[in-house]
Each structure stands twice: as C-alpha cells, then as structure tokens.
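Hey, I was hoping to borrow your eyes for a little while. I've been puzzling over a protein and I'd love to understand its fold better. The fold is given in discrete form, as structure tokens running alongside the sequence. I'd be grateful if you could look everything over and explain what you see. No rush at all, and the record is pasted right below.
>
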Amino acid sequence: MDVAARDRGYLRVAGPDARDYLQRMVSNDVEALQIGDAAPALLLTAKARVIAPLVVLRRGEEDFLLLTEPELRAAVQSLLTRMRLRARVEIEPEEHRSVLVFGGEDGFATDFPGARELLDSGLEPTIDADELERRRIEAGVPRWGRELDDRVLPAEAGLDATHISFTKGCYPGQEPVARLHYRGKANRALRVLELQDVPAYDTELLHDGKVVGRVTSAARRPDGSVVALAYVRVEVPDDAPLAFA
C-alpha cells in the first residue's frame, strides 16, 4: 500500500437545503450520494469554463464536505455564499489532512484513478510529491493550474466521463456541456505522451510544421524517460511524431 499527501482546501456545506443547493450548483449528481459516498464534480461558469474541480463527500443527511485545491477554497466559498440566496445552508471552511492511498480499500472515492482518499488518518506518506506527480501524469489526471484553468472545457480534459452527470437537472454550464456532448466534439483532447526531454509549461507542439497542441505537465521517470500531458488537436493521430516549437 502506497500513501501520498494530498494538499486540499475544505468547505463544509450543511443545512436543510444543502443537498438541493449543491445539486443545483455542481456538475455531478449529489442527490445520488449515500452517506459516506463521494464523487468528483466541477463548478463551472455559464459558458462551461472551469471555476474549480471538487470532490463532494456526503457526511450526513444535511452535511457535505467539499474538497478542492487550497488556492481555490476562498473563491469557491465566496461563489457558493453569493449564490445561495434563500437556501438554508451554511458554508464554512474546515481544516483536515488528506492522504491518497493506493492499494487500500478504506476511505472514499476521489479524483485520482486507483486511489482512495482518507481524512485525518494519521498515515504518513510512503511516496513523495515527485512520485505522486509522475503517477498523476501517467494516469492522465488533470491538475488545476496545469491542465485546468479558465481556458479549458471539461470535455477537453476528459472530465465529462468522470465529473459530470448527463441525467441530473440544471446547473451553471449545463447547457453548453450537454450541447457539446450530444451534438459536437471537442477540438482538442488531453493526451499522455512520451517525450525526449522535460519542456517548459505551455510549450507548443508541432506536427508537420503546424502548431497542434501544448504541453501542460511533464515528469522524468527513474529510468530517465519523460512522460507528459498535453492538449493536442483531435485530428492528429495518436502515433503522429510531435516536436517542440
């Protein structure tokens, strides 16, 4: 079993209207969560740009914990507080300590494939931040500030398969998300690439002399090879040779 520290910002959303309010605000199906269950979700703008990635943990009938990036907690709290209007719900920060556990069964579902998340477990990390970053890239998991920002649509990052319910009711950004899903396709997609070197963030990628994408994350493996995440135009074949601009 491998354990990695996971930096988080935490918000308690609780009250008689907490479930209904979150159901109206986030992209995944909060009403389907049983007590103790969790699901990844997104806060989106009306144009379906990402405001914040979340994990929504249901702790009780009227008690939810939102986990997001530390630097986004204040913005998420401000937005949810501003939009609650007459909803009977409290939105307050909490302090916890998260770890990701690879190979264990305890904890709750999170936004990292193959891992479970535990709060305040007392477990100490067995892998460092560099190893966790490499695993994240190899698993194709987008990260805020790298693969995710206000330029990115959920479908481009592959989050429409994990963070979005297409059967729930309305939420901010729902219409353009559904329109792209049912009637169109994203122009670019997040890919895991093998590269010769570690490029700078946002380095452009060329195919046949044309810019077809940009690198968002890269890490060197112990054997010296480099694995990276990049947004690449969907018409470029998976095995096409790519070069740095």
Notes: The helical segments are 18-25, 73-83, 129-139, 174-183. The chain has a mean pLDDT of 95. The two ends are 41 Å apart (CA to CA). Residues 19 and 31 are 6 Å apart (CA to CA).
